[in-house]
Design a protein that fits this description.
InterPro entries: LAAT-1, PQ-loop_rpt. With about 350 residues, the chain is mostly helical. It contains 16 helices and no strands.
């Protein structure tokens, strides 16, 4: 093509290898987040996701999308779409598409976290995971939602104002957003690692998503290294750190998942709550008073001499014992599944 600027002329002949890798990464980002979205929706709870992990990830993705959209190089690529063909424009904007897809997918996680925020501990889970961590607090969801919304508004309004009023001075703002995004992404998985280690369970955390994203982080870092080389280590190093931390989280999640499956398969016939309720119903039926004697039962109960024979009395001692044992066993199971905070609250209330 003739009449193209130097920058647009370079975009008119893209590298097929780099374009294929970038397109593969865009598809991988979309596929990797789908299991996490599906698991939260399927379980109808976001229990197991650290509020700080969700908050840091949301802020990091907001800063990253603001960085890529305000970079002078990115805006120049977008401007070249008026001069080059559509396929060449799509290839040039694959870098923007990568950050945009990651931002959209993580914003959906933030939304699901708020919609399915757990209001009380899951009593179906293991007693160890319930008693080792406090129930989630509603204020955590408020902090995550309000902070994410404010960050989105501040970054969006400031970026638009900078591009409109100072289009030739947006590099500094983009650098600031890029530094914030990198710092938050580097520490994003630390609270989730601690939270998962504390509860000892994966719950709504998707192992499949991490299996895809851990190698994907290193592939993404490699794609950035191909563009900027060793001199641009600050650009791709953050994704290497993120991949390492996410790999640690993946190892924890797999170990807890295997341990949980092993405990389920190795468990012996411990009576469940439903079985205890059925036993109580049977005991109640057996312990009922016998019906009052009628005229027919009086005649049948007389012996051959015509004397009245005493009606046999139901021995209720054994049934009462079985009933008390079953009741005590059920109360013990309920007490084991009750968080310590509830016990302390009830004791304080009784003391008052």
């Amino acid at each position: 093509m003739t009449g193209l600027s130097k920058h647009c002329a370079a975009l008119s002949s893209p590298n097929p290898y780099a374009v294929s890798l970038a397109a593969f990464l865009v598809l991988g980002i979309l596929v990797s987040y789908f299991p996490q979205h599906a698991k939260i929706i399927q379980r109808r709870t976001s229990e197991g996701l650290s509020p700080w992990w969700v908050l840091l990830g949301g802020l990091s993705s907001i800063a990253a999308i603001g960085n890529i959209l305000t970079l002078p190089a990115s805006r120049a690529d977008i401007g070249c779409c008026k001069e080059i063909r559509g396929s060449e424009c799509a290839a040039a904007l694959l870098g923007v598409a990568q950050i945009g897809c990651q931002w959209a997918c993580f914003m959906f996680i933030v939304m699901l976290f708020l919609i399915y925020f757990p209001t009380e501990p899951d009593l179906v889970s293991s007693a160890a995971s319930i008693t080792s961590t406090a129930p989630p607090k509603r204020r955590d969801a408020v902090v995550v939602g309000v902070t994410t919304l404010l960050a989105l508004l501040v970054v969006g309004i400031t970026s638009v104002a900078m591009v409109a009023a100072f289009p030739h001075h947006t590099q500094g703002w983009a650098n600031l957003l890029g530094s914030i995004a990198g710092a938050l992404a580097a520490i994003q998985y630390l609270p989730q690692i601690y939270y998962t280690f504390r509860i000892g369970d994966v719950k709504s955390l998707s192992i499949i998503t991490m299996l895809i994203q851990v190698p994907g982080a290193f592939v993404f870092a490699f794609s950035l290294w191909l563009r900027v080389g060793w001199a641009g280590w600050s650009t791709w190093l953050v994704y290497v750190v993120t991949g390492i931390l996410q790999g640690v989280l993946l190892g924890l999640a797999i170990s807890y998942y295997l341990a949980r499956r092993k405990s389920k398969s190795g468990s012996t016939g411990v009576p469940s709550m439903e079985d205890e309720e059925e036993n109580l119903e049977v005991d109640d039926a057996a312990a009922e008073e016998p019906p009052l004697p009628t005229e027919r039962t009086r005649l049948i109960s007389r012996d051959s001499s015509g004397n009245a024979r005493p009606m046999p009395q139901r021995i209720r001692g054994s049934h009462g014992t079985q009933r008390s044992v079953a009741s005590n066993r059920q109360l013990g199971m309920l007490y084991a599944a009750t968080p310590p905070e509830h016990d302390s609250d009830s004791s304080e209330g009784s003391g008052k």
